[in-house]
Amino acid sequence: MCYPAFRVVILVAASFLLCSSLIRAQNGPPVHPPRPKVLGPAKWDPSPQEVSAAYWTLEPGWNTNVEMRNNLGFRELTVTPVLRAASGKEVSLTPVTVAAQHVISLDLRNLAQSQPQILNGAGSFGSVAFRFSGLDSANLFAATIVRREGQPIDFHFDADDAGSPLYTTGGIEGMWWVPDQTSNDYLILTNPAEKTVAGALILSLPSANRRIQLSIGPGQTQRIDLRETLGPSSIGAMGGLTLSLPGRESLSVTQIVFDEVTGLAAIMKLFDREPDDEFKDHTLLAPMMALSLPDEGLGFPSGTTLIPRLFLRNAGSGQAKVSLTVDWRSESKSGKFTFPQSALSSGEVRVIKLMDQQKSGQVPVDAMWGTVKLSYTGRRADLVAVALSYDKDNRYGLQTPFSEGVSRMWAGGMWHVDPTHNTFITTGNAGPESTAAEVTLFYNGGKGKYRLKKMLSPGQQMWLDIGQLIRGQIPDSDGHVLPPDAMNGSYELRDLDHATVGQLYEGKLVIDKTYGHASYGCSNCCGMGIPSLIPSPFGGPPGIDNQDFIHSTEQCSGFVDDVTDAGYGWSSSNTAVATLPTRTLHTVAVGTATGRAEIQLAGTHPAPRCPPYIGNPQQPVTVNKCPSSVSIAAKTNIPLEDDFPTYKTGIGMVASMQLGPPPSTSYNQSKVSEALSVNYVMQNTCPAQYFSECNGSATFTVGTGGTDYGVPFNPANNIFYDDHSLVNTSNVLSQAGLSTCTYSCNQTYSAVSDPSGNSCGNANIGSFLITYTFTTGTIQGTPVTRTTVAKQ
Amino acid sequence: MFAHGLSIVLTLAATLAAGHPISASNGPLPTFGELLKRHHIQLTQPALVDALKNADPEVRYLASQKLAEDKATETIPAIKDALAVEKVPSTRMNIAFALAELGESTGFDILEDNCRNRDLGPGIRARSAEYMLRLDRESAICLNAVLDVLQTAGDGYRAEAASLLPRFHNPSAEESEEVFVTLVRALHASGVSVRLEAGRSLADLGDRRAIPELHDAVASEQDQGIRQQLEQDLKLLQEKMRR
Closest Cα of chain A to B145: distance in Å? Predict the structure, then answer.
């Protein structure tokens, strides 16, 4: 199974940055922006994160594996799995550290040996919370795999960020199905939130509807046996299921059908409604539907014939016109079959057997796989669809879920290849134009990478049989092969040509040949975080051009991408101060403005939808007259002779410091500060008790004059004067018993403010080395200490 | 010359046996206005014009500089009058500099005359040349004066003259050669401060021929601290030559 049904985003917190719908700006998103550049890991500023998987059980005869994949590309994650019993009581398991891009699987029965209260009891089931410290809940892909021991029955429940108060729901639609008197149909409802959720379950029967009131406390799981609830009349039947949640709080809901006698195991996918939804076109895709002739890779007994079926229910209030196409593929060929449009009346449940088309030759008999596409116009979840391919005895078979999800990137769980397991991974292009898809298989604890790239035309699919890749030692796009002993790892899929809002769908089948069963596994769709316009804030002088950037963090991997080329709608709030017609910010005159851009990105939340949104990053702009550099324009030595005999030691030098870059108007009246420190690289041979060391933290006003030892320094544009002189009335070297000595200081200048007093942020604008040299000499026969100052 | 008016005393700890601490000035210069206020001179234009006749020569030149800073061109006649009667050479030079700052040719003429006049001390000649350079006036007369000071004056002025030579950007070929030769000679002067300034000026000039000269100076320098600085000059010149 993939995700349980739940909620819709209300991005309350981020609403000031996001548009409520994909409104195109006057100049819309670029059609084919270049691929973004990965800049590196985002700043590690973690916060508590939690994702939740809908179901685990350790009831007699059942076991559960817990799977955790670290989606981060650059550091490990430490995850604490917390089992919530049906009552809501929590049992924390030992924290697990997972390396970057690595995936691990833990046997819950083994882990729970020290927790007898959750083993083999009537209430030994519930949901699992995965808690960790990270940048985003999408840093972790987690799932539970619930398995009936010794039988071809297992189910995957992928974790998601259910229970977030950001999400609300318009209810859930589905179908119940009790195929046989030995079959079970469980509806599992979990409340991951911190408040009780009330609702009503409506089950449609040919005779009358059943309504069941529900109230589920925080952390609780309620499992409803629908066969028992519906009674004997449900056996061999199917009907509608509606979960009404008037408070709009989200629940994590999933439904499984299994038969311990036949071996049937099916997920009855549930579809979540959006509150206040409107009519629009919807397309549901099921990417890995097994057709009549089973792929040999599935390991089913020879002669097995599958019966591919679609269960459809019109959950809307009016007639639904449904278009159905199947993109089929056999060993050597592929093609498309389009069904006549079907009309389903409100509440109608219909079964479509694709086998009929294979029998009639409309779809080749040897076609093994199909991607099923259903299109309708209505509200989300108006059409409930389940795909199922089992043999006539419901013993051998598999499923593929319908989804509307397409993404720029998918972070997948675990692939297995060993003598009894194999894994198929697929990705397809659901968009209107070609795109380059890349599949990366991680192995060796996430350290090894195997990458395959392929251009996919619209509708085209890429299909990987990982067992075959390993056995055949097939080189990847870089010429690498998977090690022959590689048995498991994680994977990811990327849409390289649509890296901000992608058009790839995905699917994974893990085949267990022990029991002749294949289970479907989903991936995390990976979106991008709220974009930033860089630099923010911007400060600079008039008359310059600055290249702006748009950065956004990939929410799964934690890497920051440069997505500037996907930006559009560049604008400035005050073009008299700065213009931003493109990514080039041009400063015009002193003042403030706000730079803006738009960018279409896929978000991550709520998983698994990764809904596109338009980000509107902003950039405060202050145009000032701050300098960014300083250089020595002139050095004026002042000899000791000028002040002899008042002083017998000294004097030094005044440096004329010039600010840059050359401004359109002057930097006069700007403030510049200095910081001094001892330089320990150069010789320091002057005794500290006689000579000052490197002290000072003065502030200079640019463009002002002054006087030093009777030498006037005239005010000059963009110049400030820095005095480096020392005096003493005695001959200091003589008193120290030295003939020469030297010491050096490091000096750094910082821009404090521009001529109008706007802050320059104390930006470092230049560093210098000042060396003081003291030498003995005579003036008119009197011994003196001369000071020579070098500055560079 | 006049004593420093507003020196920021940074080293109080270094009190010598004689009881005189070293005063280190590091930072901005005291402004003309600040210094005049210390002499109780108002900064109004009439007060400044009046101050041009003050008994204290420091006040007289500070007043002229403040008027130049204020771009008070209407006071040029008053400054000229002050210049005409000024007898203290350094004050006369500084008042001439104020006039030159205001664009008055008289100021430049006086400064150039100072350069020419061998009867004035080397300090006045070198400083006048420096003022001319500050106002972007390159004078062959002042260049010759600086070369003369470098060859004939005491160490302090020689060092000052050596530091001025790279600031002449448009000498003739003959003058350039004389500058180079004089600096190379100064590199071997007995006064350490002269050698240091000559080394730095040769590096600033960027004449490849100075490389072996600096090599020699480094090799013959006994003092490690001085040698380290000459090595830096050599490195600076070599880097300049590589560009």
Answer: 16
Task: Look up residue A88 and give its amino acid.
Answer: G
Using the CB atoms, write b or e for A140-157: b if 16+ within 10 Å.
Answer: bbbbbbbbbeebbbbbbb
Transcribe A600-666 into DSSP letters.
EEE---STTT--EEEE--EEEEEE-----EEEEEEEEEE-GGGGTTT-SEE-EEEEEEEEESPPSS-
Shortest distance between the Cα of B29 and any Cα of chain A, in A, equals 5
pTM over 0.80: no
**Residues of chain B with C-beta less than 8 angstroms from the C-beta of A729:** 18, 20
- Which residues in chain A have Cβ-Cβ distances shorter than 8 Å to B123? 639, 641-642
Q: Tell me if A685 and B5 make a contact (CB, 8 A cut-off).
A: no
Q: What angle do CA A430, A435, A440 make, to 5 degrees?
A: 95
d(Cα B221, Cα B243) in Å, to the nearest integer?
A: 28
Pair A773, B224: CB distance under 8 Å: no
Residue-wise pLDDT for A601-624, tens only, equals 988 776 666 788 999 999 999 888
DSSP A274: P
Q: What is the pLDDT of residues A514-532, one digit of tens each?
A: 878 888 887 888 999 999 9
Residue A404 burial by Cβ neighbours in a 10 Å radius (0-12, 13-18, 19+) = middle
Closest CA to A204 of A164, A173, A232: A173
- pLDDT tens, position by position, B100-111: 999 999 999 999
The mean pLDDT of B45-50, rounded to a whole number, is 97
Per the DSSP assignment, residues forming a β-bridge with A326 are A337, A372
Q: Which residue has the higher pLDDT, B19 or A705?
A: A705
- Contact across the interface for B1 and A711, Cβ inside 8 Å: yes
| Alpha-carbon separation of residue A178 from A350, B78, B224 (angstroms) | 15, 113, 97
Residues of A whose CB is below 8 A from B68: 714
